[in-house]
Design brief:
The protein has helices spanning about 15, 50-55, 275-279, and strands at about 25-35, 65-75, 80-90, 95-105, 110-115, 125-130, 135-140, 165-175, 180-185, 195-205, 210-215, 220-235, 235-245, 250-260. By secondary structure, it is mainly beta. Strands 7-6-5-4-3-2-14-13-12-11-10-9-8 form a 13-stranded antiparallel beta sheet. It has a single domain (about 15-279), classed as Lipoprotein localisation LolA/LolB/LppX (outer membrane lipoprotein receptor (LolB), chain A), CATH 2.50.20.10. A hairpin with a 5-residue loop joins strand 10 (about 195-205) and strand 11. About 45% of the residues are buried.
Amino acid sequence: MSHREVLHGPPGNRAERNRKEFNMKYAAVLIIALGFATGVATAQEKLTGRQIAEKVYARNDGTDSVARVEMTLFDKSGAERKRQLDMKSKDRGDLSDSFIEFTAPADIAGTRFLTLDNKTEDDIQYLFLPAVGRARRIVGGQKDQSFVNTDFTYEDMTRRSPEEDNQTLLKEEKWEGFDCYVVEMTSIKPDDSQYSKTITWIDKQSFVAVRVDFYDKKGEKTKQLTVKKLEQKSGIWTVMEAVMENFKRKTKTVLKTTEMKYNSGLEDKIFTLRNLEEK
């Protein structure tokens, strides 16, 4: 909603099971973050760009999560439209699947989106539209399209592991009250991404990506994901408010988390194509 982009066990196994996506998805989505156990780096510890990315990827965000989110879409005139949605995610080994359902208003209620994490290939994504009555798979050529008319694309709703990108630590600086690492990321397979690069500000305390700048293939900054509110819920750093701004379209999408619950024991059957179409 990226991230996100501008983006949840016993000790010993926990970090591996809870490896999460560097960008947001959170999000994201949302988000998508888009969420992303890891310790805080000491003042003497010098980290590389790859090591920072790995810490973000391994950040504790629970074994599963349930969130209620308010989405506000702003067009270039400033007019706004509001939506409500529920977001669920669950670990599957060292992977993580997600399920999104819009609940309001009426013109989008019942629209659902399923992402099945795939470590070696593209994530598997399905979109269900009530008017159509069946799910359609989002294929590679559609990844740069808008996700249900928001400022997030389908690519922004996927996860990327550190192994898929080259990372360079550019600098360390304070941004909006956060003490950050600033890391540039470029895809090892440039044709697999709509972006030439992303530059990400990562909070040193939480290892949450609090800002992501997205650059198109021409090298122009086209979008920016920023975290406006970050809180601990059940001991887990959680993005409570984030904004994705599209500079070309002059639009933005605001995501506000109104409810969040971790480790509730979600069933595997939630994250299936059958549930997506029959729910």
